[in-house]
């Protein structure tokens, strides 16, 4: 059984930026930690194990893709971009499953077609004590195109199921470890609420080191809030809220789009730094509380649509 790690067993969620280098401006010769560690209290002592995950989310080799692969091996054709995309999704599913299932990990290493296409994946098999260990997979899924061939759609569904199972098991382990009221939705809301408050506080701070620390905290709360909201939606949490989490997510992303690597907080966001439109639409489609709120409140729906227009379409392929 996994338990929750003590703070000494995990890295701090906010890196120590060190002493100030210059008294003028936000910072000089320092850069923000763009990929902060997860909150220490959310890290499990033991890696997640889901021995039966392959029963629910196994990517299958179809006759069509097998035939195309065989022709490629014989030198009679080259894999198409569609097949490469399918392989990348399938290898991502397999890598997720191998990370939480020792038995499947053995099959993963022995699989001929996975060996041939493993380089299309973006991360390697790893132990999972927090969803951040599978960050590349969680970033990859929401950014897939809406329209995909049948085989790719099935593979995407397998990836969605695999990540959902990981998140649900992770949440159960945290609850067993004493976090009885833990929910991804609640954590996401708390992170983004703190970020909005920090943004207001920073305006009154001029001392360089204090401002730096607050800006790093601002970044980290937006970063964690975004991720935990994705986890809430993807794990299909049974939450009852006012449907505001999507708007809060957009607010957090707009704050991140104002942050420069050196700690400068711009007046206006740089829209190209927002997540791709595919991610925003993925959340919009899956957030049931948001859908219900939009059906009941036309003004709120108009606000959501206005925010969606800020996100730019960027394909992952």
What does this structure look like?
- This protein has 317 residues and is mainly α.
- It folds into two domains: 53-176, no CATH class; 183-308.
- Helix content is 53%, strand content 0%.
- It contains twelve helices and no strands.
- It has helices at 63-73, 81-100, 102-110, 112-117, 135-140, 150-176, 184-202, 208-234, 245-256, 277-286, 288-296, 298-308.
- Helix 2 packs parallel to helix 6 and helix 11 (288-296) crosses helix 12.
- The radius of gyration is 21 Å and the shape is globular.
- The model is unreliable at 6-28 (pLDDT under 50).
- Tell me the number of helical segments per DSSP (H or I, 4 or more residues long): 12
- The number of domains is 2
Q: Please, what is the average pLDDT?
A: 83
The biggest beta sheet is recorded as:
none
| Quaternary structure of the protein | single chain
Helix content: 40-55%
Going by helix content, strand content and strand pairing, the class is mainly alpha
Q: Which stretches of 5+ consecutive residues score pLDDT under 50?
A: 6-28
Radius of gyration in whole Å, from Cα?
Answer: 21 Å
Question: DSSP strand (E) fraction?
Answer: under 5%
Q: Write down the secondary-structure element order.
A: HHHHHHHHHHHH
Distance between the termini: 39 Å
Shape: globular
Q: Total strand count, please?
A: 0
Outline of this structure?
The chain has helices at residues 63-73, 81-100, 102-110, 112-117, 135-140, 150-176, 184-202, 208-234, 245-256, 277-286, 288-296, 298-308. The protein is mainly alpha-helical and 317 residues long.
